[in-house]
TrEMBL record:
One cellular component term from this protein's GO annotations in UniProt: cytoplasm
Disulphides: C199-C243
Species lineage: Eukaryota, Fungi, Dikarya, Basidiomycota, Agaricomycotina
Record family assignment: Belongs to the AlaDH/PNT family.
First-level EC class: oxidoreductase
Protein name: Saccharopine dehydrogenase [NAD(+), L-lysine-forming]
Keyword check for Disulfide bond: yes
SUPFAM superfamilies cross-referenced by the UniProt entry: Formate/glycerate dehydrogenase catalytic domain-like (SSF52283), NAD(P)-binding Rossmann-fold domains (SSF51735)
Alanine dehydrogenase/pyridine nucleotide transhydrogenase N-terminal domain ranges (all copies): 9-143
Enzyme Commission number(s) from the entry: 1.5.1.7
Biological source species: Coprinellus micaceus
Catalytic activity: L-saccharopine + NAD(+) + H2O = L-lysine + 2-oxoglutarate + NADH + H(+)
Length: 371
């Protein structure tokens, strides 16, 4: 297999329930039209059929064979690789979730150090204004708010929210949520923090589409949290959706103590932590410590038997509930940068990402005692 500079190898995803893809048949075709060669690992998990990629000229390869691909072929994927200590000799483009000292961060980076590979983390590809070139935010907030409304509806029937499965499209999701709430979300009150961001706008959009009154969608961003938490306002809504981008230590938004102190009259029943800084030492919602999953979407906060329940949803791959639309949107936003990847040694978006990787690699080498 010959490689040249204009090649991408789309690897499979191994994270459970992940159906999205960093490249789609649409964007793969555009790359091929621009002269790229695209290898695509067969992947039954992916929302797109292998044949859709083949039809636009991609070369299909077997599932999970990227480790034996020539080391000069860049590997593109979406989420974390399965935990391992194997050295990584390739250049990877993906979300690695290890630059903010998340659990296991230094072990992941140590794999790149040992293999002399490189990581371009999709979370840190920024335009000249420092804004992400591609992000899943909108659909994450949209799906998170939907899951929150479904959890509230389940509790109203004395149940716990069960398995969540991807929806064919947005309309199907909205209809399902409205049905669960008895036809409309009218009367439900929600607070979205980070409402001006991508996730926040998605959450607000879902609440509007399921029929909440505009006054019942409380939208907070930096100005409203500047006074410092914890915030009693959070306890006075049915659903709180956290959508902030956490970049430094901030006062807690809500704590178990404030929840318990609110007593029996507490309105808050569901917290959706879209930001999901679960293992981040500065997590402003320290009332839970696990990421929930599509087959068990909620974790109950231990508030004792006397008080109303409080469920937390902390699923870190929410957009996969709308996999096709979310992938198409993300991949088309990423495409202009991917087209410049062969010039990554001089293109700013890539040189900035490489610099950040080197910095984080250095920290991991220290932390792991590899120097
Ligand atoms: N759970 C998931 O599946 C999922 C998917 C995508 C993104 N995310 C996460 O969601 C978070 C937000 O992503 P985004 O793309 O919407 O970011 P964004 O930058 O578009 O928006 C973040 C918003 O939060 C606001 N904000 C930051 N700090 C705040 C504070 N202390 N108080 C109030 N508002 C504050 C900002 O002003 C901004 O409007 C990120 O951490 C991202 O990793 C989660």
């Amino acid at each position: 297999m010959m490689s040249n500079k204009s090649v991408f190898w789309l690897r499979c995803e191994k994270k459970e329930f992940e159906r999205r893809s960093a490249l789609t048949p649409t964007t793969a075709k555009k790359l091929i039209d621009a002269g790229f060669e695209i290898f695509v690992e067969k992947d039954e998990q992916r929302i797109f059929d292998d044949s859709e990629f083949e039809a636009v000229g991609c070369k299909l390869v077997e599932n999970n064979t990227w480790p034996s691909a020539p080391s000069d072929i860049p590997i593109i994927g979406l989420k974390e690789l399965p935990v391992s200590s194997d050295p990584l000799p390739h250049t990877h483009i993906q979300f690695a979730h290890c630059f903010k000292r998340q659990g296991g961060w230094s072990e992941v980076l140590a794999r790149f150090y040992k293999g002399k590979g490189a990581l371009y983390d999709l979370e840190f590809l920024n335009d000249e204004n420092g804004r992400r070139v591609a992000a899943f935010g909108f659909h994450a907030g949209f799906a998170g708010a939907a899951a929150g409304a479904l959890a509230l509806a389940a509790r109203k029937q004395g149940k716990e929210l069960g398995l969540l499965t991807p929806y064919a499209n947005e309309t199907a999701m909205v209809e399902d949520v409205k049905n669960a709430l008895g036809g409309s979300g009218k009367g439900v009150k929600a607070l979205v923090i980070g409402a001006l961001g991508r996730c926040g706008r998605g959450a607000v959009d879902l609440f509007r589409k399921i029929g909440l009154d505009e006054d019942d969608i409380v939208k907070w961003d930096m100005a409203e949290t500047a006074k410092g938490g914890p915030f009693s306002e959070i306890l006075d809504v049915d659903i709180f959706v956290n959508c902030i981008y956490l970049s430094s230590e901030i006062p807690h938004f809500v704590t178990r103590d404030t929840v318990v102190a609110a007593g029996k009259d507490r309105r808050l029943r569901v917290v959706v932590d879209v930001s999901c800084d679960t293992t981040n030492p500065y997590n402003p919602i320290p009332i839970y410590n696990i990421n929930t999953t599509f087959d068990k979407p909620t974790v109950a906060v231990d508030v004792g038997p006397e008080l109303p329940t409080l469920d937390v949803i902390s699923i870190d791959h929410l957009p996969t509930l709308l996999p096709r639309e979310a992938s198409e949107q993300f991949s088309s936003d990423l495409l202009p940068s991917l087209l410049t990847f062969p010039n990554r040694s001089s293109e700013r978006v890539w040189t900035d990402a490489a610099k950040l990787f080197q910095e984080k690699l250095g920290e991991a080498v220290q932390a792991e005692g590899l120097a």
